Amino acid sequence: MYKFLVIQTAFTGDVVLATAILEKIHQFYPDAQIDFLLRKGNEGLLRDHPFITNLLIWDKRKQKKRNLLKMAMRVRKEQYTHIINPHRFPTSGFMMFFSGAQYTAGFDKNPFAFSFTKKAPHNIAEPHAKEYIMEVERYQLLIEDITDKTAAQPKLYPTPGDYAAAKPYQDGPYICIAPSSVWFTKRYPAERWAELLDLLPAQYNVYLVGGPDDKELSQSIIDMSGNKKAINLSGKMNYLESCALMQGADMNYTNDSAPLHFAVAMDAPVTGVFCSTISSFGFGPTHSKGRIVEIDYPLYCRPCGLHGRKRCPEGHFKCALDIKDEQLLWWISKTT
């Protein structure tokens, strides 16, 4: 029997994107064992996933090197036939190198790529390129030899308990907003989210979602607005409960951040607000229910990097502040 391991020890959104690999492997090898290795803190995303046999959880924050060696030994002991690794950093490459697996697939940028049986390029298009591929399509390059060339959609599987947690908030039509991001230049400003709250149709409840660290930001947005139907749910729902809630929303607003991928994985409508980053990087929505909103003119300093920054290098943050309110309301006339 084939025994697969998928490794993605990066951030939450990266784990969601890697579920496209799970979907494709299960499609072609429905009887295979599939395990998933991820960093501690992200395991809630894949709790009770129907295609995963075992979750391997690596604690990267405590005794990182010691725990890395322990995990590498566990991976070797499991005797996987196939290891698929979209993570591009040496820690995951080392685990593959040490694994003894027959088939090891990873990107050529990984320092241990010399040892992989399958290497694929991880190329990011030039800024504002007219032709580019999405991150899930880059992931598919790792397994095209053993599946096919068409990328699957990411997918998450909330449990009945997760749906039950979301149900009390689903009595009427609603919108979800995930206003936060780890990076300042990826975060649409709080005052602009507040403006959006005031412009949304009155029939909608509006739920601000996020983790415990986002409570203060979400509350500040509500306090700045005059919307009496906005509710702060940040820190009150886990990942899959939030996904269950987002699935039923008439619209989900996010930054270029993990909640955008939550919406895609739930086949839910999403408007991704892209400030300093751009669509040609390949991290936008991959389904028909998504749209990217961004400034409508070329800005000399955008993008200022592949990832976000802690501050605007130019000091003006025009890539966020020059997005117009009406751009965010593109979908309203289609549903009202």
From TrEMBL:
Gene3D superfamilies: Glycogen Phosphorylase B. GO terms for molecular function: ADP-heptose-lipopolysaccharide heptosyltransferase activity. GO terms for cellular component: cytosol. GO terms for biological process: lipopolysaccharide core region biosynthetic process. SUPFAM superfamilies: UDP-Glycosyltransferase/glycogen phosphorylase (SSF53756). Pfam families: Glyco_transf_9 (PF01075). InterPro entries: Glyco_trans_9 (IPR002201), LPS_LOS_Heptosyltrfase (IPR051199). Transmembrane segments: none annotated. Keywords: Glycosyltransferase, Transferase. This is Heptosyltransferase. It comes from Flavipsychrobacter stenotrophus.
